[in-house]
């Protein structure tokens, strides 16, 4: 258990070192862009796929293969196909046969009962193909919104109106915030019930309409909340989800309130002798640097008060900034930043980052002693200048190992979180760990008496052991491992066979279950079953002898329901004893009991009424 805990702790510290430079980002990182782009490097099997690949690549500002235009050559006269093909024409300049296209789209757009979605696709296709659309179409859209009152319909209406109108209706712009209030808020994120597509298309429509009207339709707080939801979907693996994630991100990057994120470049939040510069990037949701921005360091200090950077402006501009460390003092520093941003950009959520300064350590003042506990005689003492040592110990030996840890330049004596000595059995590869404790003078020590440790820690397993000192800490560039000695532990011979646990599986555990008890012969079982039913047979015979009269029982709903309910209850109990669980039995019993009770009450009432009449 101690071995597992120490190894897990070391692995966790390694993970923390790797994650130190990562901040929660409302943007696409370079790796995000590469991963998302790879989902659109697919074979094109349909016009819809060609449309998605073209739009996604254009948002990511990547080249789109011209071969995609092959899918636009023979377009069917359907609203969806013309909508998809028109984007290929607009973005890539693909040639499309326009015979009858304009008439078809105008007819579909003007058709009675045309949905907002149909009108949006027709208007978009006409404009992409350089046909004119009259602004009177807005009235038809407004009328349709009265019956099609959905978030998606409003988002598409915003896009349609912005593309055909010079003057945007004021009430339509004001509706943006009203519709946004329909969104659900979970933590920092806002989204609509319709999910990613509905939220992304609403954001796209609201952004385009607000730009045309030159008015911010969404508040800065709402925009930031929608950004949290949209960017939370960037890790998805479905192409359609990533497509609408890109639509939403593109809308955020062009909105009146553009969210920004602070990214640490090249893991530079870990300051060391080899890398003493902190490099930051301020980016928009698409991961592009924010032009015209500047940054400065407000403070960069740790708990004890030392600073690692000077306060003041950082070098660089246009979203790329850099600062040099003023000194290498081990520790974790809270670095607070401030930014001057162009109009329309929001400050990043996180303006405080953790910067870690890592400095190697060295061993000093080492003392490795072996003492014979029977006569208190020092067997060996060494300063490890010739390490690793070759030593022999037995049950009468006591090991004392003292040392100090200093910064690499010898300027500072330190205490660290993980300091222990590992004994590795050369034959079995088993590890035994002993934690080194530091005293008030920062001197580490291990005191090991093999008389007790031989059985308790080493499992009475003698042989050759490799002795290593392992030092780990969040402020080290990497864990330090130092070979101390090769130790031969001489113990009374063990009858247990030595097994190399590092290469062979443990013996398989086989369980011995209790054998089933011998059952009685079938004849005895049948006899017992007959005896169980014998009381019922006796009851029927007794009724026949006594002259029980059932001829007066009326054939009514209450009578059949009451007696049928009693029979059902008996069957439910029998079913329970056969194997049905208690919950199912109670559920069925509740229904049968309720029917039996109501029918029985009505039956008794009718019997009482009949007696009064007589």
Helix content: 25-40%
Beta-strand content estimate: 15-25%
Mean pLDDT: 86
Biggest sheet architecture = 6 strands, antiparallel
Given as residue ranges, the uncertain stretches (5+ residues, pLDDT < 50) are 1-24
Structural class: alpha+beta
Overall 3D geometry?
Answer: flat
* Number of separate strands: 21
Number of helices: 16
What integer value in Å does the Rg equal?
Answer: 40 Å
Distance between the termini: 88 Å
Account of the 3D structure:
This protein has helices spanning 2-19, 30-39, 47-59, 79-92, 101-110, 116-128, 137-147, 151-164, 170-180, 196-213, 220-231, 239-253, 450-456, 522-546, 557-578, 582-613; strands at residues 184-186, 189-191, 261-264, 270-271, 277-283, 294-301, 312-313, 320-324, 331-340, 352-357, 361-372, 377-382, 389-394, 397-407, 413-414, 418-425, 431-435, 437-438, 443-449, 463-472, 480-490. It is α+β, with helices and mostly antiparallel strands. A hairpin with a 7-residue loop joins strand 20 and strand 21 (480-490). The longest helix is centred in the C-terminal third of the chain and has 32 residues, at 582-613. Mean pLDDT is 86; it is low at 1-24.
Concise summary:
By secondary structure, this protein is of the alpha+beta class.
Relevant terms:
single chain; 614 residues; alpha+beta; six-stranded antiparallel beta sheet; five-stranded mixed beta sheet; flat; disordered N terminus
